[in-house]
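Morning - flavin mononucleotide inputs below, output right after.
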Amino acid sequence: MVSRAATRPGRSPSDAGWLFEAYRVADASTVGAGWQRLVLDAPALATRAAPGQFMLVGSAAFSPRASGPDYLKHPFFFASISPEAGQVSIVFDRSAPFAWEMADWATGTEVECIGPLGKGFPVTAEPAAAPLVLIGSGYGVAALAAALAGLHHDRPVALFSVGAPPVSPDPGLLGVTSRITCHVAGTLEQAWREAAEAMPGAEVWAAGPQDFTQEVAGRALGEGRRCLVTVEAPIACGVGACLGCTSAGDGTWRTCREGPVVPAEWLKGVKRP
Amino acid sequence: MTVDTQISIGNLRCKNPVWVAAGTFLYGREYGRRLPLEELGAICTKGTSLEPWDGVQGIRIAETPAGMLNAIGLQNWGIDAYLERNVAWLREQNATIVVNIVGKTVDEYAAVAAKLSPRDADAIEVNISCPNVSEGGVFFGTDLRMTEKVVDAVRKATSLPVIVKLAPNTHGLAEFAKAAEAYGADALSVANCIPGMAIDIRRRKAVMGTPAGSGGLSGPAVKPIILKMVWDVTAAVRIPVIGVGGVVSWQDAVEYLMAGASAVQVGSALFRNPNAPWDVAQGLEQFMRDEGVSSIGELIGAARP
Ligand SMILES: Cc1cc2nc3c(=O)[nH]c(=O)nc-3n(C[C@H](O)[C@H](O)[C@H](O)COP(=O)(O)O)c2cc1C
Ligand code: FES
């Protein structure tokens, strides 16, 4: 952990709740089909991040290019959080427009991060015994894998990836308890049916692109299930200061502050551009 | 050597010429809990209206080469919410407070200004230049007669220093600057975001959520354009000018000062670097030491013939 960002003397970082620091890429690898995983040495961040929260990631120096977006940092869910190792990881689609620079970051690259940001999944606050279904698509599966790792170990959990998962949940975890199962489903319809059979009436947490989480929210509400989902919006500041990520459904929220994990009820009446 | 970084804008005394720009800093808490607001020259609040405004429904942010588009549409909770929730906290931080105000009518601008006592604000910045609302905002800033009316009404409604934030998309910016000065402005902010747009080529539609599909461009991409406007406007008026647009580093701030600005505002650079305004203030002070400059006054307009 080095650089300008870290050395600026400030108040106690807890005043803001988030850190602005530079981290070293400890490992960069292509995982799954077209997904890139970055592990960062980020000890202070790893002790305060929660699954479902996110961070903004960008190059330490402004690197302009002749064409295309290059100005902002970009938001990523934590795909893993390890206070013991002092590391966090993210995964992203190598072909996404924001990845023009990130896809080439290798071990040793220094990057700047702002985080942890927003509200995550209530992993430790939740009752240990209640059954839980996690349904993710794309990058959402990575966020749910982080949630899975943070849950009470005796909680019965079924994790569904709709489509190929970018990362598999930590295999070590699956050995902790026989009450955790992981599944890959072709469609949401299929995942929903299997989940209903395996764990009728379970609470649902969903993560991924908003078209996907919105559909999960609709199904869960229809069946009267408790449900938390992630929401998306273009993010500029990430800390609640610019009102660039405001969304409206049943109420109005800043995706970066009151989200990105919100109760399914909030999505009632939400309009997607 | 000791350097004096203080500046005056009308009756407003600021510790240094580095402010934060309206709308990128809300009412200070998000960034100001982390680093001390009292170290900045001033903070400009989010544009604030008489009643709460919802803002734009739909996409509000798009990243562009060396910049970004925004279409927030001046979402805010209204002036009463500002007075109830934010003033006390900002005062505790010893922040120098510039309240950025907006309205849909001349009377609304005046009414918001009238609600601000010297306890609630150290100055008022009149935003007649927001490109993202259909009523108010830039409608006032691109019509000379309306500019005069708004400035006149706000001037009569308050004893606080009045700063008028000009629109960059007018012909004859100097005329607008002179009009604001003639009707009692104490200073000018030059300038607001430049109208721009982006197209989603897969969906074949404009990205931004405003009815016109446009937004306001800010960031390094606008700096050379706004720098020239500052150069031109400072030649046209006697009142101080504040440079706003694409300040990312202390070097940018020095350029604005040398072009004639008395202060600068740092906006979207915060999103990349939440330390940006503090870094700019520190870098500027170091530059003064390195160059043997003892007061900001020596830098203001230094590049002008
Ligand atoms: C997200 C966002 C919101 C803004 N909201 C306001 C506002 O409420 N009132 C205003 O006068 N200007 C507003 N602006 C304009 C900025 O104050 C500033 O003029 C502009 O961003 C250029 O500075 P920059 O290049 O440093 O960002 C906003 C800009 C951004 C990026
Ligand atoms: S991204 Fe700025 S308020 Fe959420």
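Note: The CA atoms of residues 18 and 281 of chain B lie 6 Å apart.

O.
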